[in-house]
Structure formats: structure tokens, C-alpha cells
Amino acid sequence: MRTLYHYPLSPSSRRVRVALAEKGLEFESVIEQPWRRRPEFLALNPAGEVPVLVEDDETVVVGAAITEYLEDVHPKPPLLPACAKSRAEVRRLIQWFEIKFDREVTENLVGEKVIKRVSALGQPSGLAIRAGLANIHYHLDYITWLAERRTWLGGENFSQADIAAGAQLSAVDYCGLVPWSEYPEAKDWYARIKSRPSFRSLLTDFIPGVPPPPHYADLDF
Prior knowledge:
Layout: E1 3-6, H1 11-22, E2 28-31, H2 39-44, E3 52-54, E4 60-62, H3 65-73, H4 84-119, H5 126-149, H6 160-174, H7 184-194, H8 200-203
């Protein structure tokens, strides 16, 4: 069986987990703490980063390439539009959330408040946390703008853009740091994401010593 090496609060890992579930692909889950830099894991990915997918035939696919690989090898159901113009827009949004949102929000909140704690790699930076709390409003404004104009973030159909955004927000929501009450349109969009069967495993994640808030797994939050 294919194996996914991942860390529960890694948004990139979450994105792959949702994509696998959307496509109905079973996998063995191996939780990897990348800061430990296990030699066996480094042999799979010298960068020492999750996620890493290992197929039955020992094919190894790493990071953002995994979702593109899955789309090529398992095209149904499609998670990218057929139209080249629409695919470009979805990929633009994937980059927005995988790179910009992650750098400006997730790393400053999840990275500082959770990852540093469980990895014992230093004390949280109050400056970084304040920056993350400020930056999330800008991103929720943008999600609201998209949700008001489109059925899904990338267009008419659910796509990798929604998965990328939901993966980031769900990690931050695990920390209870998303101001949902101020952004009802974004909250409604996230509620639809959260209700999808592919998202269920994310809602059962639990980091020892760092429990999620009560609303985290509540579909009627």
C-alpha cells in the first residue's frame, strides 16, 4: 500500500491527505516529525520536509509535486479544471495559500505557538505571533472577496485551490486563532469544506499536550 509520511499540522501534508481522500485512494499514514531528521526519512527526501508519498512500486514523490502527480496518475475525480485559463487561476491560488498565506500567517502562528513547543526548538516569538494575527485579516478579506464572487475559490467547481486554502486555515484553526465571527462569508465557505468526507481525518488530529479548541471538529461551528 502507498505510504504518506506527514505531520498533522503541516498544511502541505493536509492538502495531500485531502486530495488522496477526494480521489478515494487508500494509504498508510506515517507521522513524521521532520525536525528529528531521521536518516531513514532523509533517504526518502534529503530536504527533510513533509509530505512524502511512497507508492507500492517504491516511487517517491515529494512536497507540492504530490498533488500534481496524483492528478496525472489518478485524474478522476478531477481537482484541477480542464480549461487551461481556469487551471492557471487555480494554480495561482494554490501558490497564494501554499506560499504567501503560509509565510505570513501559518508559520507565524502554528509555527510559533505549536511547532516550537512540541519540537523544543526555541521560545515563541511574540513579534511573529502579532504579525500572524494581523496578517490573517488581510487573507480572510481576500477569501471573502473570492467567496462572494465564485461558487468555490477557484471558480465553479471544488478544486485544489479550496484544498490548499482549507489546509492552511484548518491548521490555524487548530490553534483557535481564526476570527471566524468577523468573516461570515469565509466561514460559510470553510463550513462547506469542513463538511466534506475528505476532511474528516483532519478534524480528528490531536497533538499531545496541545489540544484543539472545542469548535475545531464541530461542523456547526
